Amino acid sequence: MEKKVTKIGVLTSGGDSPGMNACVRAVVRTALYHGLEVYGIMRGYSGMVEDEIIKMESRSVANIIQRGGTILKTSRCKEFFEYEGRKKAYENLKKHDIDGLVIIGGDGSFKGAQLFSNEFDIPCIGLAGTIDKDIAGTDFTIGFDTAVNTAVEAIDKIRDTADAHDRLFVIEVMGRDAGYIALHSGISTGAENILIPECKTVMEEIITQLAEKERRKKLVNLIVVAEGDEFGGANEVAKFIKEKLPHQEVRVCILGHIQRGGSPSCIDRVIASRMGYHAVECLMEGKHNVFVGIVNNKMSYIPLDEAVKKKQRISEEWMKIVKILAS
Ligand code: ADP
Question: Which whole-number Å values give the CA distances from 305 to 107, 214, 309, in the listed order?
Fold first, then answer.
């Protein structure tokens, strides 16, 4: 028989993403609805290690659903990589009698959670809060929709100026290991090329295409590149093009951190609310150490270690769509 969870801790960890606040709100309010106590752990695992743990009431999460960032703050915590750090974190949780955790973060945070719950028998529920959408087991991650819409808005603006001057723009979007932001923002802005870590980038092919377009006087071209593409970021791509096609007018734009901030989109608020609600239900029903996602519009539950191991794949068909639509 699983032990009944009575006091829940909630934290946001790793890279921040818009919608984390909506998720914290859902966890807090659902826990309170069920008569559980709920604690906010500040700055990810750092707050667990350093005992920055605060009791949350319904009003603690008032007026935050529309705010980007995270009221609990987030961080990367070195101590949590070491057993001693995790032990300290456990002792702090015990001090507050916290017997269940909801972790909103990326795959690094889930690796930490998996280790922690194996060592100290604290059930952990993982919710994907990441703009990169690089986690298997869910169709949505909290923050992706907002981030990709921010990128789309920016790229649309860049296309206006590219068009006015007949220029080639190389635009870098976030995604160290995953090309989802590049793929979605590129398709929805009609980018001529999209470079992502999941597919091999053959720059010579792109140069041939550009030279052919130059011949046809199609001079406005947008290349969207994920920061983690194996060829390098936007600067490397632009440098290579300038070397091969010296008379091309090439400009670079790196969108950077604006993609993380801002008010979450409706989709991100809704999925964050659903995931937060179901995370608490999971802890109450004894579904421990699971990753809660949404697949085909239904809640999906997979073991946390599976979510950590698997990556989302981008099928070849996506790249075919890019090629056909941008020709
Ligand atoms: P994200 O969760 O966004 O992928 P990180 O990879 O930076 O972000 O992970 C967030 C935090 O999770 C790390 O700073 C660390 O405290 C913890 N963590 C990540 N990987 C591990 C691991 N292998 N063992 C223990 N803790 C980890």
Answer: 10, 50, 6
